[in-house]
Amino acid sequence: MDARRPVEPGEAAFQGEFERERPRLVALASRVLADASEAEDVVQQAWLRLHGTDTEIDSLPAWLTTVTTRLCLDRLRARTPVPVEEIDVVATAPDPADQVVLADSVGVALQVVLDRLTPGERVAFVLHDTFGFEFATIAAVLDTTPAAARKLASRARAKVTQPAPEDALADWEVVDAFMAAAREADFDRLLRLLAPDAEVTADDAALLAGTPASIRGRRAIAEFFNGSAQAALPVYVGDRPGAAWFHRGAAAVLFDFTVLGGLVARITFRAEPEVLAQVARREATQRKPTERKRP
Known about the structure:
Blueprint: H1 14-33, H2 36-52, H3 60-79, H4 108-114, H5 119-130, H6 135-142, H7 146-161, H8 170-183, H9 187-193, E1 194-202, H10 204-208, E2 214-216, H11 218-225, E3 232-237, E4 240-247, E5 250-260, E6 263-270, H12 273-276, E7 279-281
Parallel strand pairs: 1-6
Antiparallel strand pairs: 1-2, 3-4, 3-7, 4-5, 5-6
Helix pairs in contact: 1-2, 1-3, 2-3, 5-6, 5-7, 6-7, 8-9, 9-11
């Protein structure tokens, strides 16, 4: 089927074209949402909207791209209810199927900064800087003007490229992302979060508690943590982020992280009493050491 031929409402043949577009749509949604399973869900929702539409579609790739991105935008806004300015609506945009250039990945260090952007900034930045969309296309997706879309992307780019005081908090987010990937058995995300020469070590007290003495290399560490650490909770150790296994309400083994350049470079299992005495529970959303509370 020719994707540029108008698609008639209810035409069964567009299912084959949708399946050909699916990998691109999943890649787009994954970049915007940073969640592979949620991206698959969004693309399935786009299919349901396509299946139920009663309007003629001039360009199926363009229609699917717009619907998928707007579904992602809805989810971002639901995650982060940030007030956004009212801006004018434009009616049409170029065919994004001719303009998309897929990037291999969004780095973890970048991802933690993206999480701080407003939904509009994030969509404009990812679509333009990662996928190569023109601002006219982004404007149609966001229901704004090309000038406003350019401003959103520029504002996001400034936040990503210019150091800001809160950028020091990225370590906390990397630790939490690593532990979440471990619990959810997200092997690929674990690999992306680990430095190539990462290593795991343990103090003598942790060895007595049953932890491994040493694990070296990104893949070996990811395999060890994949699907594990279900009982580990987020903590502070002094003023640094970490996680710990708790037993009867007390920290039993600390996961002491060293984060360099947005990647986990070292994890040390520690169970010495003087170290565990510094451990304090924290909520997963807490980022500042001054917020920590002891149980």
